[in-house]
Design brief:
Blueprint lengths: L15 H9 L2 E3 L5 H14 L12 H13 L21 H17 L15 H16 L2 E3 L4 H4 L5 H4 L8
Antiparallel strand pairs: 1-2
Pfam family, one: DUF1569
InterPro entries: DinB/YfiT-like, DUF1569
Protein name: DinB-like domain-containing protein
């Protein structure tokens, strides 16, 4: 199943919604969540990074190790369990509404200058670190969603009535 995933990276958060818009046109998921559930999860993650008490303390030793491993790898670790109950999406969601919520969360985060709460596993993060985290998080989860490609038969141009009347090379 992992080979079916998209290899996806986002350098900036403003790259996320164009990808989501393409997926809304038609998609297949290869993971356990629907696109709507993934969008709900990503929205909750971004919201949590702007809520709570700001934390500028030093990271614990364990957080420091996790921080270095996470950001050096450039990839979101597999099989992580949600660190907060709001990150677990409901069974049924409205995908379009979740896409709008994600867009609003990204805009809100992008306009925010903090202060930001600490990540439970990585410790205190500055705005740029949170941005990179969210880009990696979005790429990880949206990688489980494949855009449906149109069938080749739908791409073939069908002759129009005016084309049918033409002989070879435009002769009538």
């Amino acid at each position: 199943m992992m080979s079916q995933r998209r290899d996806l990276t986002f350098a900036r958060l403003d790259e996320v919604m164009p990808d989501v818009e393409h997926l809304l046109e038609g998609h297949t998921t290869v993971g356990r969540w629907s696109l709507g559930q993934i969008l709900h999860h990503l929205t909750a993650g971004i919201a949590l990074s702007m809520e709570g008490e700001p934390d500028t303390s030093e990271p614990t030793r364990v957080q420091g190790i996790a921080y270095r491993r996470f950001f050096r790898s450039g990839f979101f670790p597999e099989k992580q369990h949600a660190s907060h109950p709001t990150l677990v999406p409901p069974r049924t969601v409205d995908t379009s509404a979740e896409a709008q919520s994600l867009s609003a969360a990204i805009q809100r985060f992008s306009a925010s200058n903090g202060p930001f709460p600490a990540h439970p596993r990585l410790g205190p993060l500055r705005r740029g670190e949170w941005t990179r985290f969210h880009c990696m998080h979005c790429a990880h989860h949206l990688g489980f969603v494949l855009q449906n490609t149109p069938k080749a038969s739908s791409l073939v141009r069908k002759p129009t009535p005016s084309m049918e009347n033409l002989g070879p090379i435009g002769e009538k």
